[in-house]
Design brief:
Elements (H helix, E strand, L loop, with lengths): L32 H4 L2 H4 L20 H14 L6 E4 L6 H8 L5 E6 L2 H13 L6 E5 L2 H7 L8 E5 L24 H11 L3 E3 L7 H8 L11 E2 L2 E2 L1
Parallel strand pairs: 1-2, 1-4, 2-3, 4-5
Antiparallel strand pairs: 6-7
Helix pairs in contact: 3-4
């Protein structure tokens, strides 16, 4: 039997199809209730009207971690790099943090799911950074290759890709050549054709030998392990 949902509304209009703002745990599908309980860690301004699709809860970076990532990229990137490309924007967690950092002349955010993209745009408005972000709907590899290629001298690419594949949740060390839907090589090869400045947010159990080998010994490789409230992220 299909689960009935209450249609949430803003004060002026109905939310787009697939986008939700849940107020109470009883409204939330059972498989994302644990994320709903963490909603203020995911978006501190959740009660201001944050939108999410049900699938987006699984992939959004918690706000304290997103803020730290934004700080580390701001501090560790050469000054001439003024453009930040968020290849997998999702519901906007990292994108918003990058825009709030004031480090980037422009943030370019790419998301292929139109419903998730609608949530991200709205959430950027909640945080007041919508005018600092350019949005693209579609495949990030095609958009970077065909629409953002002229930014190669100025861009940094950040990617928090979907995590999945055999052993992702069970292996002590996760084989990044088995990551789905994109392996480490499938991510890095097209990104590095645009810029050598690439940052990836990968599973905490990722095989660091594979990360090191993919780097090829060119320049500095930095690996940071993020934790929040005693848990690895």
């Amino acid at each position: 039997m299909a689960r009935k949902r209450r249609r949430e509304t803003t004060s002026h209009e109905e939310l787009p199809e697939g986008c939700h703002h849940y107020d109470e745990v009883g409204e939330v599908p059972w498989d994302i209730q644990k994320y709903f309980h963490q909603r203020y860690s995911i978006f501190s301004r959740y009660d201001d009207g944050i939108w999410m699709t049900d699938d987006a809860w699984f992939g959004v970076t918690p706000e304290p971690v997103a803020d730290k990532i934004a700080q580390h990229l701001a501090d560790g990137t050469p000054n001439e790099k003024a453009i930040l490309i968020d290849a997998f924007a999702g519901a906007g967690g990292n994108t918003i943090a990058f825009a709030l950092s004031d480090r980037w002349k422009r943030v370019y955010a790419i998301e292929k799911d139109p419903q998730v993209l609608a949530c991200a745009k709205h959430n950027a408005e909640v945080y007041g950074v919508q005018n600092r972000i350019s949005w693209y709907e579609g495949d990030c590899f095609e958009i970077i290759k065909n629409e953002l290629a002229e930014m190669e001298d100025y861009a940094v690419i950040f990617a928090s890709p979907p995590w999945g594949g055999p052993g992702y949740r069970t292996d002590t060390i996760f084989d990044l050549s088995q990551m789905q839907p994109y392996t480490l090589k499938e991510l890095l090869t097209p990104f590095q054709q645009l810029t050598g400045n690439v940052a990836l947010y990968l599973p905490r159990t990722s095989d660091l030998r594979q990360v090191t080998e993919s780097h090829g010994g060119q320049g500095k490789l930095t690996v940071i392990h993020y934790c929040m409230e005693g848990a690895s992220k």
